[in-house]
TrEMBL record, chain B:
It comes from the Bacteria. InterPro entries: Beta-barrel_TonB (IPR000531), Beta-barrel_TonB_sf (IPR036942), CarboxyPept-like_regulatory (IPR008969), Plug_dom (IPR012910), Plug_dom_sf (IPR037066), TonB-dep_OMP_SusC/RagA (IPR023996), TonB-dep_OMP_SusC/RagA_CS (IPR023997), TonB-dep_rcpt-like (IPR039426). This is TonB-dependent receptor. Residues 383-985 form the TonB-dependent receptor-like beta-barrel domain. The keyword Transmembrane applies. Keywords: Cell outer membrane, Membrane, Receptor, Signal, TonB box, Transmembrane, Transmembrane beta strand, Transport. Residues 1-20 form the signal peptide. Coiled coil: none annotated. Belongs to the TonB-dependent receptor family. It is found in: Cell outer membrane. It comes from Mangrovivirga halotolerans. The lineage of its organism: Bacteria, Pseudomonadati, Bacteroidota, Cytophagia, Cytophagales. Gene3D superfamilies: Carboxypeptidase-like, regulatory domain, TonB-dependent receptor, beta-barrel domain, TonB-dependent receptor, plug domain. PANTHER family: HEMOGLOBIN AND HEMOGLOBIN-HAPTOGLOBIN-BINDING PROTEIN 1-RELATED (PTHR30069:SF29), TONB-DEPENDENT OUTER MEMBRANE RECEPTOR (PTHR30069).
Length: 489, 1027
């Protein structure tokens, strides 16, 4: 072949090598990069993704605050009425669709759900021993996040088993609460089926946690028979008993005791920043509940948030060991401890949350307002007992005897006399007991709502409106799917 | 035929009878002194003529009173009377205004006459004359519509090229194509400005032949090539210069400092700091850090060609030291270039371009809070440079400020770059209508850097300290609970590699039917890959705390603090393009093109983009009805098209990364979990620009005076943002972030004018004047829902922002309070809107929202107080050549831009600028705020800190002399020229800072001055030799 022709063929080849290359050329994967699309290759990947899904539990402090502040138990407090303004609005029952704290609740739980769904999206990538344990915990976590959402907002979009793209949101509608509950129940049953009553690793979800949360979810739906069944199973089969001393129970050193059913774990070294309260990981409640400008023994200075009302304090029998364990009377304390100094913040009541409070020797780093080593005790055995008592008392064929037995177990620990009532009186006694036993733990508002007492007990509460919190207006707008706001907002 | 011969014969007879015949010989050279072969030399009015040979020589027998005409394509013709001379050497000037001048457009060429788009061009010699360290320096003010701002005046410092405004808050870099090879805009320092043959800037939608890379405009750079049939020509160019700072900031001397600081504390009932304020001048820290520094550049080029090949081979050396820090802030560059073209067969040409660069750069902290100049401005004049022991003094009591000379002495770094850019191309003239081109272009760069962080102690409580005390004991650091180890000195070394290649293949077609219908077509495809990788490592415990031993090979390998890191990434682009052009008799011209780009950067749902462009032109002056003796040429142009910008988008941004925070404690130990960080977006795509342009080109005075006027509207949509998204996507956990989406729109419009005048006043006197003017109106017209504004550059120390991007305002406008002078008395305060902490002598802010209260907590009283975008920029070039002397001058002006004075450290003991002497001292004394340590709000960001940044600068002036041929002929040189010149000789401005020509790394940081490293004033002497 002549050199001329060889060259021309070479030229043709360069020309058309490019011309015939097709779009495969641009379909390249990132090299040396772990990203969301190529993860889940080893069992460890599943475990790490699960840890990431657990991680968002640590934003739960907001649930405590709102559950208390919205109720008759406490006031928003803080430095001034504009300090975390959303809490003040909730306190005054003047909250509407624009409320940063409610939006944080919405964002926090959906972020947790997305992390769980990411695992489910990749559930079938790999089979390995122990995968059922991982998936069971994932089921629990999703149920927990949805249980928070449905408790606050009622009907919420139900997204399962996949992440959502930005372009998909506008076609997502709010799912009726009953369907959300059905998903929660299914998830919890799936978790309970696989998990053991105990896990050697502190902080891992157990069967007891799953069944107890299921019991709580049944109770919130007035499904008393189902609630009684699962809660009794926990009582009968579970390894739990009451911690004997309520006066020292809330100290860091007595964390993780025989009463612990479900704790959200904190170690006091992970914090966050004031710029992003929704990404806090350090349990802000104790620091923010702390006594303002405090100097003196035992406690450390904090931000006087979520301050208990006199109504709560005075509702206790003075002999009730839980009164001072739950509510700190700062005036009395200062009298008893000369040299104590403290400031007064907004809505100063003279009382502080004594369960979750910043104490010396129990602070976190680097910022001990944002970070605390205390756990958030989400479900205690006492709650299992009182929920079981209520379910047994309110179910179609009540078992008041067992209900009383459970109730009196809790009362006995607090040095309170036995209750002998039955029927509606027993119901009321159980409800009363819940306020005392769980004061400061974020359950009160939701208990009042589900038992229909809210309008009577909470000033400014409008029946038919305040049972649910409004969907954040910004979320309605961002979704662009035409969601209707909750009634009367 | 017979008659012509007869007439000729008659003329010849006449000539013979009237005048004696003689022989004239000589050499024809170009303006650089290179011989031009192939020039037609003709006795005027006859057929008697010849052509110059390979050495540009000719010889012709003519009557002694004949007139000779010299003509050559691309050069101005000349007529020279013989006047009985036997030797006539001619220098021919290139015809810059020629309508048939070749203009490089994408995948082909055009001529000025045929162009339908807005293209600005400049020739290499205009660039060379400016003697600039970086190519971009030479482009400033040369083109209407192209704005160049400096990121820094330091040696090797970067420049921003902005074509027609800011179209995004992210990457506004134009596409740069060097001889068909795609080149990184930030890497232009590697190019030797002397290697440039021409630069063509595609400003309007006709750049769209480059599709998704074209939205910020395209700069086509052509390097110097040889010419066929030309004997080897060697040229040497060199200059040596001395640089000094072009400006110093007027700050307080020691006495003034003491007076003001005493007043400051006394006004707050404190005890005076200085018992005796008579401290004289004190230390002028700027004098201490600024120095004169050398700059030098030498080029050697050989070019020539045979009848089949041409070549151009060059090498150069450039070295610049800094006016701050000298050798510690320096840039050295070696360049090599081999351009070679050969005809493999009659119709097949092979071209090889090879550009090599080796760069070496050292830098000091610059243009940041804490830079050397920032410290020099803010350090107190009462401190000496050295204490009695000869150690550097501590800037005691001035938070964050350290002795700038100690800082220079303790800064150690170097970066070495090796870069190869090249092209292998085959061009096949298939027949007279078709040609095909296949080419492979590549860029390979290797960047190695080394950074030494010694143990150093700048004084008590200085955040910059790496040692615990003056004895250089190390600080301790906790690596595990309760485990403390010393944090020793460290060295960081890195190596990065950048490899790009592009493979282009295209066919060009051109045919004229019936003499009037010309059809042109281009069809092609291109693949482009850009990849990079790097490794980084930091090691501790460098022996002897010394730069000399700061290598990873010498560190303590077992130190627990040692770290390493790495990355690798690639982006690929696959493109097809087609262009059709039609013109009727060169009078009506139409062009349409379409490019299809697919990129690995885009999400799965938007991987492919289509970019159409239409353009047309009407040469009115060719119309029969048009017979104006005023216009020599008149053309109306218009274009519209859509193009994209893929540079704002990082590789694989469309994918979700696992960058979230997912740690949770089990058994009281944090377990390392994984979570999605920034969410993915499969719809993610390019920023898209649609641009309309209408232009008018016209020539007057026989082409000596030419005008180009353009008006454009450029709208860029689908900008990249991370606005709030629905919570359902789940991006609000720790470490997570919403996905990037395409939203938001920016509009630019503007007017561009360029005027060129060129006149050969006589054979010995040439004059050229060029003027251009650019206006840009920039406005953000849409932001994504959920994001009202984006904040940009911080003001002072803390979380205040000076700039914003917001609908209805120019991108990066300055956002703050407006002032109304200072409160002169308490009554004025009482009668004004409530202003917290106000006392007489404090700045008085305007109540913008009219609610009677100045809102310091929120934004309700803040408003637009300036913008870094100038209203008008202008360039003015003057060239005069007369009797061997030449003078060139280049002026640049920027008018209507503002600058934020952000280099003052607002703390009590920092030094202050001299304007503070005019402080308020009592009612009616001044509108300059008082000095006090009392609580006040004078340091919030307001128009008090915004200054007019307009300036006029003589960027370059040069006076040269070329030795006459009668001298050089005996030396063996073709051409010898000496010159003296100066860059940045003077600047007229009201701006108080170092340098009003201040750029930034992004549109949102533009015009915020942190003590800008000024561009030096340079005096130089140079020589150009051709032999």
């Amino acid at each position: 072949m002549k050199i001329k022709n060889k060259l021309k063929i070479f030229l043709f080849m360069t020309l058309f090598a490019a011309a015939f290359s097709c779009d495969d050329y641009i379909d390249i994967e990132p090299e040396g990069e772990l990203d969301a699309e190529n993860f889940f290759r080893t069992p460890r990947d599943y475990d790490r993704a699960l840890t990431g899904a657990y991680d968002l539990l640590q934003t739960s402090y907001l649930s405590i605050w709102i559950g208390e502040i919205a109720s008759d138990n406490s006031r928003a407090g803080g430095e001034s009425p504009s300090d975390t303004e959303g809490l003040h609005q909730i306190d005054a029952m003047s909250h509407g669709g624009i409320n940063a704290e409610l939006r944080n609740i919405f964002r926090w739980n959906y972020s947790g759900i997305a992390r769980v769904n990411y695992i489910f999206e990749n559930e079938d990538n790999l089979e390995f021993e122990g995968k059922d344990q991982i998936m069971a915990q994932a089921h629990f976590l999703r149920a927990y996040y949805y249980s928070e959402l449905v408790k606050f907002f009622g009907d919420v979009p139900l997204i399962v088993d996949k992440r959502l793209g930005n372009d998909e949101v506008s076609s997502i509608q709010r799912t009726p609460a009953s369907q959300v509950y059905a998903q929660i129940e299914a998830d919890l049953l799936a978790a309970a089926e696989v998990l053991d009553w105990t896990n050697p690793v502190k902080g891992r979800i157990t069967k007891g946690a799953a069944l107890s949360l299921l019991g709580r979810v049944y109770l919130y739906q007035d499904k008393f028979d189902e609630a009684a069944t699962v809660l009794q199973q926990v009582i009968d089969e579970g390894p739990y008993s009451l911690f004997p001393d309520v006066t020292t129970m809330w100290l860091l050193e007595n964390e993780e005791n025989q009463e612990t059913v479900f704790d959200i774990e904190y170690v006091g070294v992970e914090g966050g920043s004031y710029g992003c309260f929704v990404c806090l990981e350090g349990f802000a409640a104790p620091g923010f509940h702390g006594i303002r400008q405090y100097s003196g023994p035992i406690y450390a200075s904090g931000n006087s948030y979520n301050v208990p009302t006199a109504d709560l304090y005075n509702s206790f029998d003075p002999a009730d060991l839980r009164r001072d364990a739950s509510v700190l009377d700062i005036v009395a304390f200062a009298e008893a401890n000369p040299g104590v100094e403290y400031g007064t913040g907004d809505q100063h009541t003279g009382y502080f949350n004594n369960k979750y409070i910043k104490r010396q020797g129990e602070t976190g780093a680097p910022d001990d307002d944002l970070t605390s080593p205390l756990n958030h005790r989400v479900i205690r055995y006492a709650d299992v007992l009182l929920m079981a008592a209520e379910a047994l008392n309110r179910k179609a064929s009540p078992d008041d005897a067992t209900a009383r037995e459970y109730l009196n177990l809790v009362r006995d620990r607090a040095d309170m006399p036995e209750i002998t009532a039955s029927g509606a009186d027993l119901t009321n006694a159980i409800w009363q007991e819940r306020r005392w036993e769980f004061a400061g733990e974020g359950l009160r508002f939701f208990d009042l709502v589900r038992t229909g007492q809210a309008a009577n007990e909470i000033e400014g509460f409008v029946a038919g409106k305040h049972e649910l919190f409004p969907i954040p207006q910004a979320e309605i707008d961002l979704a662009g799917a035409g969601w209707e706001q909750n009634s009367n907002y | 035929m017979k008659r012509t011969l007869l007439i000729q014969l008659l003329f010849m007879l006449l000539a013979v009878s009237s005048y004696a015949q003689q022989t004239v010989s000589g050499t024809v050279t170009d303006s650089d002194g290179f011989p031009i072969p192939g020039v037609n030399v003709l006795e005027k009015g006859t057929n008697n003529g010849t052509v110059t040979d390979i050495e540009g020589k000719y010889s012709l027998t003519v009557p002694s009173d004949a007139v000779l005409t010299y003509t050559y394509i691309g050069f101005n013709s000349q007529e020279v009377p013989v006047q009985s001379r036997s030797t006539i050497d001619i220098t021919m000037m290139e015809d810059i205004t020629a309508l048939n001048e070749v203009v490089v457009v994408g995948y082909g060429t055009s001529t000025k006459k045929e162009l339908t788009g807005a293209v600005a061009s400049v020739k290499g010699e205009s660039i060379e004359k400016l003697n600039v360290p970086r190519l971009e320096n030479a482009l400033q003010g040369q083109f209407a519509g192209v704005n160049i701002t400096a990121n820094s005046g330091s040696p090797g410092g970067g420049q921003n090229i902005r074509i027609r405004g800011f179209s995004t808050y992210l990457n506004n870099d134009p596409l740069i194509v060097v001889d068909g090879v795609i080149y990184d805009a930030q890497g232009l320092a590697s190019i030797n400005p002397s290697d440039i043959e021409s630069i063509d800037v595609l400003k309007d939608a006709t750049a769209g032949i480059y599709g998704v890379q074209a939205a910020n405009g395209v700069i086509m750079i052509t390097t110097k090539k040889g010419k066929k049939n030309q004997a080897a020509q060697v040229s040497f160019d060199g200059y040596y210069g001395v640089q000094e700072t072009s400006n110093k900031i007027d700050v307080l001397n020691a006495r003034e400092y003491a007076v003001l600081k005493n007043e400051m504390v006394v006004s707050n009932n404190g005890t005076p700091i200085f018992d005796n304020t008579n401290l004289g001048e004190g230390t002028d820290w700027q004098d201490e850090v600024f120095q004169t520094a050398p700059i030098q550049n030498y080029n050697l080029t050989v070019r020539g060609g045979t009848n089949k090949s041409s070549y151009s081979i060059g090498g150069s050396y450039f070295d610049q030291e800094g006016i701050v820090g000298g050798d510690k802030s320096s840039f050295t560059r070696y360049n090599g270039r081999v351009n070679f073209t050969t005809d493999l067969t009659d119709n097949l040409t092979f071209e090889n371009v090879l550009l090599y660069a080796n760069e070496y750069r050292k830098t000091l902290p610059e243009n940041v809070i804490g830079s050397v100049l920032y410290n020099a401005i803010n350090n107190s004049p009462i401190f000496e440079v050295y204490d009695e022991n000869g150690d550097f003094t501590y800037a005691d009591g001035i938070t964050d400020i350290i002795n700038p000379l100690a800082q220079i002495a303790n800064t150690f770094n170097e970066a070495r770059t090796n870069k190869l850019t090249g092209k292998l191309a085959l061009n096949w003239e298939i027949n007279e209508n078709f040609s095909a081109t296949g080419r492979f272009g590549y860029n390979w760069a290797n960047v190695k850097s080394r950074n030494f962080n010694p143990l150093v102690y700048y004084g008590p409580q200085k955040a910059q300290n790496t040692a615990d005390d003056a004895d250089l004991n190390p600080k301790m650091t906790e690596i595990a609970p309760g485990v403390l180890i010393p944090q020793l000195n460290s060295v960081t070394q890195s190596e990065q590699k950048f490899i790009d290649y592009n493979l282009d293949a295209f066919i060009n077609y051109e045919k004229t039917f019936n003499d009037v219908h010309t059809v042109k077509g281009t069809l092609g495809t291109s693949v482009f890959s850009q990849s990079s990788e790097g490794i980084f490592a930091t090691g501790y415990d460098v022996p002897y705390n010394s730069w000399e031993f700061a290598y990873l090979s010498l560190i303590d390998e077992k130190n627990f603090l040692n770290t390493n890191d790495g990355y690798q990434t690639e982006a690929r682009l696959l493109s097809y393009f087609i262009r059709g052009e039609y013109n009727y008799n060169n009078k009506y011209l139409f062009s349409a093109m379409l490019r299809r780009d697919g990129s690995s950067k885009f999400g799965a749902n938007n991987r492919i983009g289509y970019f159409p462009t239409f353009s047309g032109a009407w040469v009115i002056s060719d119309e029969d009805f048009f017979n104006s003796s005023f216009f020599d040429f008149l053309k109306l142009r218009a274009s519209y098209g859509v193009s994209g910008n893929d540079k704002s988008l990082d590789n694989f941004t469309y994918r979700a990364l696992l960058g979230g925070e997912g740690d949770y404690p089990f058994n009281n130990q944090l377990a390392n979990g994984v979570a999605i960080g920034t969410a993915g977006n499969p719809d993610l795509k390019w920023e898209e620009t649609s641009q309309f342009d209408v232009g008018l080109d016209f020539d007057l005075l026989k082409g000596a005076l030419s005008f180009a006027v353009d008006y454009y509207i450029k709208t860029t949509k689908d900008l990249l943002f991370q606005p709030d998204v629905s919570a359902l996507i789940g991006t609000y956990g720790a470490g997570s972030a919403p996905p990037f989406i395409n939203a938001g729109t920016v509009r630019n419009d503007g007017l561009e004018l360029s005027i060129n005048y060129k006149k050969n006043i006589s054979n010995n006197v040439n004059l050229s004047i060029a003027y251009n003017l650019t206006t840009v109106n920039n406005e953000v017209t849409a932001m994504p829902s959920g994001l009202d504004y984006l904040e940009g550059a911080p003001f002072s120390v803390g979380a205040n922002y000076a700039t914003r991007m917001e609908v209805g305002y120019p991108i990066g406008f300055f956002y703050g309070y407006k002032t109304d002078g200072v409160f002169q008395n308490q009554q004025e305060i009482d009668n004004s809107p409530t202003q917290l902490d106000a006392s007489p002598g404090d700045l008085k802010y305007q109540d913008i929202n009219g609610d009677g209260v100045i809102d310091f907590g929120g934004n309700s009283d803040k408003t637009i107080i300036g913008s870094a975008i100038p209203d008008v920029t202008m360039g003015f070039n003057l060239g005069v050549q007369a009797y061997g002397f030449d003078l060139s001058a280049f002026l640049f002006a920027s008018i209507g831009n503002e600058i934020v004075r952000n280099y003052e450290r607002q703390i009590p003991l920092a030094n202050q600028l001299a304007y503070r002497i005019d402080r308020w001292t009592g009612e009616g004394s001044s509108n300059e705020p008082r000095v006090t340590t009392e609580l006040n709000r004078n340091n919030v960001f307001s128009d008090y800190f915004v200054e007019d940044g307009s300036y006029l600068r003589l960027k370059n002036i040069q006076i040269g002399y070329t030795l006459p041929n009668r001298i050089t002929d005996n030396t063996g040189f073709e051409n010898v020229r000496f010159y003296v010149g100066a860059n940045n000789l003077f600047t007229l401005t009201e701006y108080r800072g170092f340098d009003p020509d201040i750029g930034s790394f992004g549109p949102l940081g533009a015009g915020v001055d942190l003590g800008f490293y000024p561009q030096p004033r340079t005096y130089m002497f140079g020589v150009n030799l051709n032999f």
